[in-house]
Amino acid sequence: MMPNFKDRKPAFAGGRSFFPVKNLVIIVSVVLMLLGWYSTRLVVAIIPEGASGAVTFATAAGDEWYISLTHSVEKTAWNDYFRVNGANNMTMTHTRFSSLGWGYPYSAADGKLTQTAVGKFDMEMNRPYKEVALRISEQAMPHIVHGGDSYDLIALYGQGTAVTVKAMYRYQYWLERYF
Fold it and tell me: Edge-to-edge, what's the strand order for the sheet holding 89-97?
C-alpha cells in the first residue's frame, strides 16, 4: 500500500490549507457578517393583537415617525410625534392639533404649548415610551407615518384591533415573530 503524496507541496511552497476551497470559507464568512449587521438594525414594528400580520419599517436612532388621527369629538386632525432613541426606547417629542377643545391638553404640566404660523397648536411633551399601545377606531382613521410612507391601520387590521408599536432590533422582531 503506497501513501498518496499528490496533494503534498514542497515545504518552500508554504503549508497546506485546512480548507480545500478557500473561496467558500470567505464567502460564507462575509455572508454571516452581513447577516449579523443586518439583524442588528433598528425597526419600528406595528404588532396587532395575536401577532399576525405585523408590519415593520426600517429606522435608525434619531428618526421620527408619527401617529396621525382625527379627534373623536372635535373631528380635527391630531398628530403625535415620536423619536426613536434605540431598542425599546422612544420619546414622544410633541403633539400637534388644530383646535383647543374637548379632551385636549390644558395643564402646564402637560407640556409647553405654542401656536404655529399656520394656526395649529404644538405641545412639547418629551415623554419616554418603551412601546405605544392603541386600539384602532374607524372614527379616528389612524395612520402611522414614517418618511414618505403611511400605514393605514384600519385597512391593515380593522376596527377595534389593539396594536403595539415598538422600536426593536430586527433580530428581536424575528425572535418574537418566528420563535
Answer: 112-115, 121-129, 89-97, 77-86, 64-70, 143-146, 149-152
Phi, psi of 139 (to 5 degrees): -65, -35
**pTM for this entry:** 0.81
User: What are the tens digits of pLDDT across the range 136-178?
Assistant: 999 999 999 999 999 999 999 999 999 999 999 999 999 988 8
DSSP state of 149: E
Q: Which residues lie below 8 Å from residue 8, measured CB to CB, with a gap of 6+?
A: 16
- Structure-block grid coordinates of residue 159: 376596527
User: Which amino acid is it at 14?
Assistant: G
Q: What is the dihedral of CA 27, 29, 35, 41, to 10 degrees?
A: -120
Other CB atoms within a 10 A radius of the CB of residue 121 amount to 16
Residues 66/82, Cβ–Cβ less than 8 Å: yes
